[in-house]
Amino acid sequence: MVIVFVVVAVLVMAVIVTANWYVWRRLFRDTTRGPGLTRRVGAVLIAGGWILAITALVAERSGAPFWLQQVLAWPGFLWLALSIYLLLAVLAGEIVRPLLRRFLEHRARRTDQGAQPGPATSTASCPAGSAGRPTTAPDPAPASQPGGGGGGATASAAPDAASQRDGGADAPATAPAAPQANGSGTAPVSEAGDAGGASASGIVAGSRAGGGATQASAPGQPAPGRPAPAAASQPDRGAAATVLPPPIGPGPDTSPEASPEPAGTATPTGPSRRLFVSRVVAGAAAAAAVGTVGYGTYGVLRGPKVNRVTVPLAKLPRAAHGYRIAVVSDVHLGPVLGRGFAQKVVDTINSTQPDLIAVVGDLVDGSVKDLGPAAAPLAQLRARHGSYFVTGNHEYFSGAEQWVEEVRRLGIDPLENARREMPYFDLAGVNDVAGEEEGQGPDFAKALGDRDTARACVLLAHQPVQIHDAVEHGVDLQLSGHTHGGQLWPGNLIASGANPTLAGLDRYGDTQLYVSRGAGAWGPPTRVGAPSDITLIELASRRA
Predict the structure, then answer these.
(1) 78 Cβ partners below 8 Å, 6+ apart?
(2) Taking every annotated instance into account, which residue ranges of this chain make up the domain Calcineurin-like phosphoesterase (predicted)?
(3) pTM score
(4) How far apart are CA 32 and CA 37, in angstroms?
């Protein structure tokens, strides 16, 4: 048995450590560029929060000084709730993360395509009559073609000839035409402002008359003794500096995906897209978790609301039609919820003007010495036929015998496996199953064994699992608590698996079971998806 306990403890610890590492990674590591203060602060925050939570639990169970329990309870228990919703929010972020990344990538592609520049143009200096005509720059081509002797001039000689025919007009040394596929004398040049930002390379001088040799000028300078070559023009249109189309055949890839960024485009200095997405998701997850816990805590501290339920009973006489029972459970007075909260509960109950008040367990989390002053407002409860109390499992953690005497002193009648004959029905109460370890467990035979079965019977029992014994003893209605309705979603999934009814009214054979979600909260003073309540049961006679 000890080995099983150790194995389970190790597995639970491994799950907790892994979950917290995952939360730290998503919230702090993935949102920073590298190791630094933010990551260290995140590690301290998560580890420190769990240390506070565990210390608060141990202090409450070990009977540590009450002031110490109060100091540890608020931050420790709130961290428990916050860590749950941080984990859930970060897990939900895994769904949002790829969608957001795809959206940003799609938007970036659309932006790049919209900003893609058209063909580069230049208004080179031209002779009179041709000024202002654009020159279209083709793709870059090799600087020169090897020349041949005799009657074959090199390809780079064409610009010189063209410029001589046009009267030697000045033109920039950029954007000459690429060579024709058939070898016609059009000279190539480099394109200004390419992806690498390089300037135009040198222009190869044409072959001299009667000579076959070629001479290359220095980069960025015209051939010796000649002006800078202009873009080639056709002989019959000397006024127009029009570049011939690029050569036929495979050329460089000019698709948007393959095109380099234009010269002069600034390199992005902000965070990468992946880092940006991580920060957005982490910020949204943290905000959602904090908001959820904050709202759930506010819901508990403002006090429970009244839930009204009508329950018909076959054996109830007509005179009892409309009889009202105020049911309150799981108040959990302790280091977090104190005297002020108890006063809110009392005021809410009294406002319903009940005929009878049923306190169905888990009233306190602490000793009478520490919590006696907090429970004092319970003496103000008012009902026509009195107030009644049964123990819950937390009373046995806090000294059940002392609390039974304390509630009796406050004017509340404790039903310890006992029954009271009310004017219209029998009211019985049994101890909680947790009392079995102390020899004070539930005794249905003692509470219900010799009653008149012709009368309707209402049973107070803290845990819903006691319904099966109630059915065997012919109980008409059992009033319970204990589940908190799950308290913190998705805790309701676990609580519903451990209890026959999670909350509300249910039927088991001829016995009805009503389970209250409770007025307070245990551990974190927070409820999510299970609001606190005080239920006003209104009995209905079928004979009415």
Answers:
(1) 293, 297, 524, 525, 526
(2) 324-485
(3) 0.71
(4) 10
